[in-house]
Amino acid sequence: MPGPDRETDLTERIESFLSDLKRGGSGTGPLRGSAETARETTALLRRITAQARWSSAGDLMEIIRKEGRRMIAAQPSETTVGNMIRRVLKIVREEYARSRGSSEETDQQESLHKLLTSGGLSEENFRQHFTALKANVIEAINELLTELEGTTDNIAMQALEHIHSNEVIMTIGRSRTAEAFLKDAARKRKFHVIVAECAPFCQGHEMATSLSKAGIETTVIADAAIFAVMSRVNKVIIGTQTVLANGGLRAVNGTHTLALAAKHHSTPLIVCAPMFKLSPQILSKVNVHCPVFDYVPPELITLFISNIGGHAPSYIYRLMSELYHPEDHEL
Amino acid sequence: MNEEELVEYFRAQMRTDPDMASAVAAIRTLLEFLKRDKGETILGLRESLTSATDCLTGVDSSVAVSSGGELFLRFISLTSLEHEDLSRCKKVMEERGELFLEKISMSRTKVAKLCHTFIKDGAKILTHSYSRVVLRVLEKAAAEKKRFSVYVTESQPDSAGRQMAEALRNLNVPVTVVLDAAVGYVLEKVDLVIVGAEGVVESGGIINKIGTYQTAVCAKAHNKPFYVVAESFKFVRLYPLNQQDVPDRFKYKADTLKTGANLSEEHPIIDYTPPSLITLLFTDLGVLTPSAVSDELIKLYL
């Protein structure tokens, strides 16, 4: 019978995804890098939408939230999982609103304006059933997946505007986004890259090997030498694990040192971060158990380059409000 | 409803519920004014409401009353655009006004819910003068069984800080009253600073009891986070660039302004804290960075 088979198939996939998450953090294990994790999560959510049993948007959101909480509990330091869940929840809300024909989709946020003009306490319980809802949601999730696939390329495309010939660029550790960014610029420009090795995992070594294969002159330095070398550097370009709601970063150990050194020498610090790394958390709620990550405050960052363009750190809250619904901040 | 009745109603509101924000009392008074108004046109209504607001600011010159009044006026303009007939319009305004009051009466609870998670166990908090919102936040944190201690500045000239200390002692929170001049001295022991605001200006800065600016500068020097808790109806359309830019009508008490004394010899009771010194603002619209405040105001007034 197709019914129970689909159910068990779905649960199997969810279980295998959860065990993958538990085994590997970002960078190790079968799920390499946060981009793949994001894609896997979204694909799984699409499968849940298609195969699970639900009759109204409210049920679907409940199912997604429940599975989402389990996924987040499996690997709390991998924030992209939570971000994708919140994106999908927002998609469900939007599609529901569109099906209901209300023009409220642009004004989901609380605002003073809404306080003054709304006619009644909004009672959105998402109980109405729409037949086209499933198809719409799946289509929107497909669009999200296409967006996810193009992010690294979109960011790399902006490289030529920011990197000029004969510049000295510093980076730290291994970020696939920063790597793609630098390689793209290397096609047309000649510049030097200094990579801080980022102990204890020394991922900077792999980064340096990969960059020199692309024909970029690379130097590897020890983390302790960052400040000493900074006076010769024109720009610092880094990736990050998460971008927080106040414009701060949760990045690999050593990034705060790099940021402070850059600030001291008035060197611009550019962060290449795709939109799926934006997390609606603010530092206090983020439990930094393992000192594998650093917090970098927004004052030290000059520019964020994401797949939708460049932004100042003070603008991040705005992007947050476009991607996620405030009620989904706490899953 | 004439001036005396207006003032009397306002004063009565403040008396019956001393916990109510002055802006809420002002809005309630204006709503009552609206209900009793016998005007025939929207324009007449707006004019009489403007003069009513001026009258109220004559009683209580705080920024909050002024911002509450402006918000109500804005609310009238937005509603009146939708209906042609005056009596229907007024009915809708009254309903929405009641709804608006209901929503903003819940704003302090929303703020407390957002902010108490930032108070960790064992935290030492510095606050300035007496703020009912900060009190509510600390109440919520104490109810969540968090252990923390508070330093309150005395806040002259009215020693409002002592009132705050009293209220905190009733909550069994260990509290110490410090001199206003001792803020720099005490900041090395403190983990975070939380203050309320009488008004939040367009740039994301705040207007609050005199001494707040000093505390913010010291907090910046010691690298301690400086948090502001304020309800959204305190957002006001001012953009001061420095202390001089804040209008005199907010700086001094209403009685001082009326007696026409030489203002250069009076002590101002509020000051302006620029957004560069503020870490985060906790409002009922969410946790905002100072740059997000102007966004909110634009959405409302444009």
UniProtKB/TrEMBL annotation, chain A:
One Pfam annotation reads: IF-2B
Q: Which InterPro entries match?
A: eIF2B_beta_subunit, IF-2B-related, IF_2B-like_C, NagB/RpiA_transferase-like
Q: Where in the cell is it found?
A: Cytoplasm, Cytosol
Q: Which Gene3D superfamilies match?
A: Translation initiation factor eif-2b, domain 2
Its principal location? cytoplasm
Instruction: State if Metal-binding is listed as a keyword.
Output: no
Source species, domain of life? Eukaryota
Keyword set, alphabetical order = Cytoplasm, Initiation factor, Protein biosynthesis
Gene Ontology CC terms, in alphabetical order: cytosol; eukaryotic translation initiation factor 2B complex
Q: Which family does it belong to?
A: Belongs to the eIF-2B alpha/beta/delta subunits family.
Main role?
A: Acts as a component of the translation initiation factor 2B (eIF2B) complex, which catalyzes the exchange of GDP for GTP on eukaryotic initiation factor 2 (eIF2) gamma subunit. Its guanine nucleotide exchange factor activity is repressed when bound to eIF2 complex phosphorylated on the alpha subunit, thereby limiting the amount of methionyl-initiator methionine tRNA available to the ribosome and consequently global translation is repressed.
What's this protein's name?
Translation initiation factor eIF2B subunit beta
Species whose genome carries this gene: Cyclopterus lumpus (Lumpsucker)
- From which lineage does this chain's organism come? Eukaryota, Metazoa, Chordata, Craniata, Vertebrata
UniProtKB/TrEMBL annotation, chain B:
Instruction: Spell out the molecular function terms from Gene Ontology.
Output: guanyl-nucleotide exchange factor activity; translation initiation factor activity
InterPro entries per the UniProt record, alphabetical: eIF2B_alpha/beta/delta, elF-2B_alpha_N, IF-2B-related, IF_2B-like_C, NagB/RpiA_transferase-like
Please give the superkingdom of this protein's source: Eukaryota
UniProt keywords, alphabetically: Cytoplasm, Initiation factor, Protein biosynthesis
Where can this protein be found?
Cytoplasm, Cytosol
Q: Does the keyword Transferase apply?
A: no
Transit peptide as UniProt keyword:
no
Query: One GO term of the cellular component aspect?
Result: eukaryotic translation initiation factor 2B complex
Q: How does it assemble?
A: Component of the translation initiation factor 2B (eIF2B) complex which is a heterodecamer of two sets of five different subunits: alpha, beta, gamma, delta and epsilon. Subunits alpha, beta and delta comprise a regulatory subcomplex and subunits epsilon and gamma comprise a catalytic subcomplex. Within the complex, the hexameric regulatory complex resides at the center, with the two heterodimeric catalytic subcomplexes bound on opposite sides.
> Its function?
Acts as a component of the translation initiation factor 2B (eIF2B) complex, which catalyzes the exchange of GDP for GTP on eukaryotic initiation factor 2 (eIF2) gamma subunit. Its guanine nucleotide exchange factor activity is repressed when bound to eIF2 complex phosphorylated on the alpha subunit, thereby limiting the amount of methionyl-initiator methionine tRNA available to the ribosome and consequently global translation is repressed.
Q: Which PANTHER family match?
A: TRANSLATION INITIATION FACTOR EIF-2B SUBUNIT ALPHA
As for family, the record states:
Belongs to the eIF-2B alpha/beta/delta subunits family.
Please give the name of this protein.
Translation initiation factor eIF2B subunit alpha
